[in-house]
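Example S7 (structure tokens).
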């Protein structure tokens, strides 16, 4: 009799866990990603001149020089 009660307890726990995870799986399937696009011209029109993307990234391309290749190759080493 004791083993029957333990077996029913075990089966009940398995069914509860199965139901919990199937409900979680349904919730994950219902989530949808919504991507909203704002055109760059509209975005930049809302920024102040100091926040402008062209001004923000201007220093990135004008102030630094890449050190990958400096134009001098010494073959006689």
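Recovered sequence:
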């Amino acid at each position: 009799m004791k083993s029957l009660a333990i077996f029913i307890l075990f089966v009940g726990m398995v069914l509860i866990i199965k139901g919990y995870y199937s409900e979680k799986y349904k919730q994950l399937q219902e989530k949808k990603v919504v991507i909203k696009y704002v055109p760059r011209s509209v975005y930049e029109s809302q920024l102040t001149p100091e926040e402008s993307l062209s001004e923000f990234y201007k220093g990135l391309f004008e102030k630094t020089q890449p050190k990958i290749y400096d134009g001098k190759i010494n073959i006689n080493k």
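Notes on this example. The two ends are 90 Å apart (CA to CA).
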